[in-house]
Design a protein that fits this description.
Blueprint (H helix, E strand, L loop, with lengths): L5 H25 L3 H4 L4 E7 L4 E5 L5 H15 L9 E4 L12 E10 L2 E11 L28 E5 L2 E2 L1 H9 L4 H29 L1 H24 L4 E9 L10 E10 L2 E5 L15 H16 L14 E3 L18 H15 L15 E8 L6 E8 L27 H7 L2 E8 L15 E7 L3 E6 L20 E4 L7 E2 L3 E7 L4 E5 L14 H9 L5 H6 L5 E4 L2 E4 L1 H10 L1
Helix pairs in contact: 1-5, 1-6, 3-7, 4-5, 5-6, 7-8
Length: about 575
């Protein structure tokens, strides 16, 4: 490369994007656990020698804040003692930047002509790293020591040779050692692939020009974001959301409050008004908050923007030490995601005043169920970990998406065939819930109902949200339906569990039903086009009763199917 002109920069950008995507595909194809193989709860990135993300393939947006924190912890710990063929592990939320301990980060240095030019890395959720409950995500954890094995920055490989002592420690602390070690080795493999491809890239373009291009990409990302921010209305805007509870104080919602101050191309997110740190594991750390703020800006500016740390240089965050947004060690953090969803939705709500054409209602949040036991057939422990979505919030001129992950949660719902073939579980129902989307001119997406029959004695945990506090609508839209988790529904053993719960004993033939929330609506429901309401009824999204009572649209069914009773509808809407 003779000069850093626009063409060469674009070639470098596309090349890096392809490299991290190839790393990601390698990780998913070599994953041992369903968490990595099917749910794709992982991200890959390339960092420069300072630990800044130069390129990331975004599956989980929060990791853009986590990668630099993890990488910098490794650089600081092993300063001057990093060699080719090394590989490092870290999953400590306080020492590094992992959202919670199950998210294991693997980092390898990239050398070219004897010099470190950057680091390849991945963060992937582990099926079990110990702790009191299978899956290591106790909703009743009171400190990080209840959340499984925590590794500060440690060297896992030297000269491409594994440290078997570290492997033995991890294996001894996991209920699923083969899956944990297998996934880590898959992460190592994806990093080594990234090293190879980066070496080829630097050989092709030359080290000096390539390193200059890395810096230029960070600079361009920041400029692009600042230019977009500069076009928005200046001012001070605030909003808040609440998490149902922290898993310990079940009658106490957790307040997430944000003040956004925007002036010119400067924007600051101030979370100091949020609740104090919680007893239960609802706390989140600043690297996760940076990732959440970055996600919101990307969503509002350009979902296809090139992802790197330059985007995070375009804004500032403020947190209060000892708060739910910046807890003091050893406050628990493992069921952090509901708090992040509240953070994201508070930001979007406040940003509606800055960018009203990009308004959106709240979505379903996120949840996972974890079932752990011992397989009598294989004679080994198993952990069934599933991530489940629901309804997306309505947007300007668009209905919310049904049965999907929302906001920063981007993992997939595991296929029924995989769940039933790998675990002693039968899925009895998997369907959308009619009328669960918040009414509005644009309807919220529908939540899902998933009902299971357990086929062996096991232990059940859930970390969820919005079972008490419904997803809010926007611009006059109504709330979405709340979620629910019921053990042995419609029997004399029926029991409703809290939003977060750990270690419920499941017996063989027990059933449980999970209903996930629907998204909030946008705009007044009386303004919804009757033709849209008719289509909703035809597709089973809205019942005829709700079409009448909520939208003022009267439908009738005859030999030709569902049709609108126009005179009755006009009369009904006039009366409303």
């Amino acid at each position: 490369m003779s000069a850093l002109d626009a063409v060469h920069i674009e070639i470098m950008r596309a090349s890096l994007e392809g490299i991290v995507l190839e790393m990601q595909n390698s990780l998913f194809r070599t994953g041992y656990s369903t968490i990595v193989r099917e749910s794709q709860d992982a991200s890959c990135a390339f960092m420069n020698a300072r630990g800044d993300v130069v390129a990331q393939h975004v599956v989980l947006p929060l990791h853009i804040g986590s990668f630099p924190a993890c990488c910098n912890a490794i650089i600081e710990t092993y300063k001057g003692d990093i060699s080719e063929g090394d590989a490092f592990l870290i999953n400590h939320p306080y020492h590094g930047g992992s959202p919670h301990a199950p998210d294991m980060c693997v980092i390898t240095p990239v050398f070219h002509t004897g010099e470190i030019i950057g680091y390849c890395g991945s963060i992937a959720h582990k099926s079990d790293i110990g702790g009191p409950v299978p899956g290591s995500c106790s909703g009743q954890a009171k400190e990080v020591f209840n959340e499984g094995l925590h590794l500060p920055a440690v060297r896992y490989q030297r000269g491409y040779q594994r440290n078997v002592e570290i492997e033995r420690i991890m294996a001894t602390n996991s209920r699923t050692p083969e899956l944990v070690l297998g996934d880590i080795r898959g992460q190592i493999g994806s990093a080594r692939l990234g090293e190879k491809r980066l070496g080829e890239l630097l050989t092709k373009f030359g080290k000096a020009d390539a390193l200059a291009a890395f810096d230029k990409l960070l600079e361009l990302a920041e400029k692009r974001m600042r230019a977009a921010i500069a076009e928005w209305n200046d001012g001070r805007y605030e909003a808040e959301r609440f998490v149902d509870d922290d898993g310990i104080d079940l009658e106490k919602p957790v307040r997430i409050h944000v003040v956004i101050e925007k002036k010119g191309d400067q924007i600051t997110f101030d979370f100091t008004g949020s609740a104090d740190q919680t007893k239960g594991p609802a706390n989140i750390r600043p690297p996760v908050i940076r990732g959440a703020c970055c996600f919101c800006l990307i969503a509002l500016v350009d979902p296809h923007i090139f992802i790197n740390s330059g985007l995070m240089n375009a804004f500032e965050i403020k947190t209060r030490e000892g708060s739910v947004m910046n807890p003091r060690f050893p406050a628990p953090v493992n069921t952090y995601n509901p708090t992040v969803h509240a953070t994201v939705e508070a930001i979007f709500s406040a940003m509606t005043e800055i960018a009203p054409k990009l308004a959106r209602a709240d979505g379903c949040g996120s949840r996972s169920i974890i079932i752990g036991g011992r397989s009598t057939l294989a004679g080994k422990s198993y952990v069934q970990y599933e991530i489940l979505g629901g309804g997306g919030g309505a947007r300007v001129a668009k209905d919310g998406t049904s049965g999907t992950s929302v906001n920063q949660s981007n993992a997939k719902i595991a296929p029924i065939e995989i769940i039933e073939s790998e675990f002693p579980t039968r899925v009895l129902r998997f369907e959308l819930i009619p009328d669960s989307g918040g009414p509005g001119e644009f309807r919220g997406g529908l939540g899902i109902r998933r009902e299971y029959e357990n086929l062996a004695d096991a232990r059940f945990s859930i970390r969820s949200t919005k079972h008490i506090i419904a997803p809010r609508g926007a611009a006059g839209g109504d709330v979405g339906r709340t979620g629910d988790i019921i053990m042995n529904p419609d029997t004399d053993k029926q029991k409703r569990l809290p939003t977060r719960y750990a270690d419920y004993p499941l017996a063989a033939q027990d059933r449980f039903r999970l209903d996930t929330p629907g998204g909030g609506g946008l705009g007044a429901s009386s303004k919804r086009d009757p033709a849209r309401v008719l289509r909703d009824v035809q597709e089973g999204y809205v019942t005829p009763k709700a079409a009448d009572e909520t939208y003022g649209v009267i439908v009738k069914h005859d030999a030709e199917g569902w049709t609108i009773d126009a005179p009755a509808t006009q009369s009904r809407r006039s009366a409303k």
